[in-house]
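Exam review. A common question shows you a sequence with its structure tokens and asks you to describe the fold in words. Practice with the pair below. Do the first one on your own.
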Amino acid sequence: MNTATVRAEELSTVDDLTYGARFLASLPLHAHRDPAVLRRWAEAADRFGAELARTPSPVPAHVVERTGGLERGLLARYTSRPRAVELYTDAIAAAERLVARHGWREWFPAGSVRAAALAHEAVHERLHHGPERAALKRALGHTALRLGRLRVPAHVAGAEELAAHAYARTVCGLGRSPLLLSAALAASCTAPAPAPAPSAREK
């Protein structure tokens, strides 16, 4: 069993909220945060994303399919200028192969990777242009400034990503967060290449 497979199997045993907290901890801005605080933020972001699925976001009107996602470590990306979603077909195909290889089809039905990627980016568009961004800040409960009764909510790096994953999981009816797929795909792309077989002269 290669390193990427072992890593993917280890990830699959970690529940979504625990992995969400680990994801936040991996970001430089949160390097010295209390793990309990990161867990609370992960739970709040997950809950926010799941509740957002009660009013599903429309599929982005302008979708551009291209390759290059494996090199970037991306399944899809929202761009505000121009306002569009870039869908990386090579990364989506690789993620579908990972699902089949690891026996995760019950969690991620055939075709759900593409649907989840579009749903995920639709939330990023919504958070970028709508009032949901401020609502997420309030839900997280992190304070940037307090003056008497006045409290200014602070941005939490990584929280929008967790909310978007929770939304995609809920609206697409997935058994696990797409964050698991992103992590497994990243592990497969960074795993060391196997040593070449010895040539006839080396045997």
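Now try the second one, then compare your answer with the model answer below.
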Amino acid sequence: MSKPLSLTEENYLKTIFSLSDGQDNAVNTSALAKQINIASSSVTDMLKRLGEKGYIHYEKYQGVRLTDSGRSIAINIIRKHRLWEVFLVDKLHFSWDEVHEVAEQLEHIRSKKLTTRLYEFLNKPKFDPHGDPIPDENGNFPDMERNMLTDFNEGDTVTILGVNDDSPDFLKYLEQLNLKLGSILTINTILSHDRSMELRNQHNKTIMLSYISCQHIFCKKS
């Protein structure tokens, strides 16, 4: 029986999966070091270790890719993380800006039975509180159609599906504007000088969002 991965090793696999956008794309080691906030030399040592264990393919100057086993572990960690976020928000009434750090700790619980029970208890959710897809027990992600808010045009009415920035500051900012999953917005004006948007919500209130903020919000056309 192989020795369980350390929390650090699991986090590396999860981060590689995230930086590869879930595809078989090579991840630059500098980008990985920046994301994990650790020296490149330490990253190289860890990648060599993970490569020896068969979880990644790594060649110097060629980037790093997950093997099938590495990808499976990464998806399982992401699955647990997002299920715990649903639990924390829906059952313990955490706000969506509070759950990420707690879920970071809970995602490393290794009990498959607990994960299965949690999934069933939550009625098999497909998305977490930030709109991110939750893989099923076979590692399959649900189909979804979403675009950044910046992909839409003046006059379009859209529904917020998720965010790609789950930092507490950004989520609190959206809460202050009363923006959440399911909020409906109509794009009144896109300002030509900086691409910021003047929006109208379902309560007929006007909201201004910067171009950068709009890039972090996923929507579908209503």
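Model answer, second protein: The beta strands are 56-59, 63-66, 147-148, 157-163, 184-190, 197-201, 206-209, 217-221. The first helix runs from residue 7 to 19. Full marks require stating both points clearly.
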